[in-house]
Amino acid sequence: MTQIESDGTMWRRMVETAGRSDAGLWQELIGRALAFPLPYRPAPGVPIYHVLLEDREIMVAEHDLAGPWSDLVTAVLAKGDAL
Fold first, then answer.
1. Consecutive sets of 10 residues in the chain, 83 residues long: mean pLDDT of each?
2. How far apart are alpha carbons 35 and 43 in whole angstroms?
3. What residue segments make up the domains of the chain, in order of their start?
4. What is the DSSP string of 11-78?
5. Residue 7 has what DSSP assignment?
């Protein structure tokens, strides 16, 4: 996942689920997020998130993060490995 700030600063984090003891929890979180479509409505000054889940790419503006997407982004930022 890449977080792109309004000034162009980028934060990249990744969670590789293969081989993790909590892989099932991550897969459940990803599944819930994919079932909850979000609009892509970028706005000036609002961070953008670029999320790559297996073969899917999702772009979402921070102000549109809701429900499982907010949970997923928060978890990846907190527990993901820096790239």
1. 95 92 94 92 94 90 94 95 92
2. 24
3. 2-82
4. EEEE---TT-TTHHHHHHHHHHHHTS-------TT--EEEEEETTEEEEEEGGG--HHHHHHHHHHHH
5. T
